[in-house]
Design brief:
16% helix; single chain; alpha+beta; 131 residues; 2,3-Dihydroxybiphenyl 1,2-Dioxygenase, domain 1
Length: 131
């Protein structure tokens, strides 16, 4: 068994599957998810799967559940905002967003929540400086 070559599925609990599907398919523009017999809805996304599964009590995420790598974070933010996505801004010691973006060493990142409270992120790699 080699886990490094295994398909990865990110599991996200949702209270309201219809509301979550609307967000992932309309706001994030993921292709329609595949409904599974156990009640999950699975999306193919960048070689991985994202599975929404019903959980009536929901969840309280305190960390980023998914981060989508993008080539141009500002353009991606603008596109998602045009579909109603609301980004979270932070102003903490050593951790501040400007225009929704925080620079974290080798990447830029911006965070938003899905309607179920899962924390999602966009990140753009910053090319290493050349000598």
């Amino acid at each position: 068994m080699e886990l490094n070559s295994s398909q990865v599925t990110v599991m996200l609990p949702v209270r309201d599957l219809a509301r979550a599907r609307d967000f992932y398919e309309r706001a994030l523009a993921l292709p329609a998810g595949e409904e599974r017999l156990d009640g999950k809805v699975v999306y193919l996304c960048g070689g991985c799967e994202v599975a929404l599964f019903p959980k009536p009590e929901g969840t309280k995420a305190e960390h980023t559940a998914i981060s989508f790598r993008v080539d141009d974070i500002r353009a991606a933010i603008a596109e998602l905002e045009s579909r109603g996505v609301i980004f979270t801004d932070y102003d903490l010691p050593g951790f501040k967003t400007v225009g929704h973006v925080c620079v974290l060493g080798s990447e830029k990142a911006a965070w938003f929540n899905d309607p179920e409270g899962n924390i999602l992120c966009l990140h753009e790699d910053i090319p290493p400086a050349t000598a």
